[in-house]
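Revision sheet: structure tokens.
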Amino acid sequence: MPGCENTSSPSRSGSLRRLAEHDNVVVKLSGLATELMTQVTSYEDWFAPVLEALNAYLAATADAMLSANAERVYGVRAASSADTHSIGKP
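Predicted:
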């Protein structure tokens, strides 16, 4: 996204935190990798570290990141969320 080149600056970080506090602001994780991913890796190789990172979060947070947020934002139901229930801390 133009203008977001330096997301590590304190002012930019604070702005992103304030945006994240709003219920109507979301980030599409898969959108972070879509453009470059298919040129350098597979979806499976990208998704494996995502699942590993989600293990540090509560199961409800992991479920939200994997499917519940998409269901809320796009109004769709995941085909099956059974595989997400073992992700994250109980």
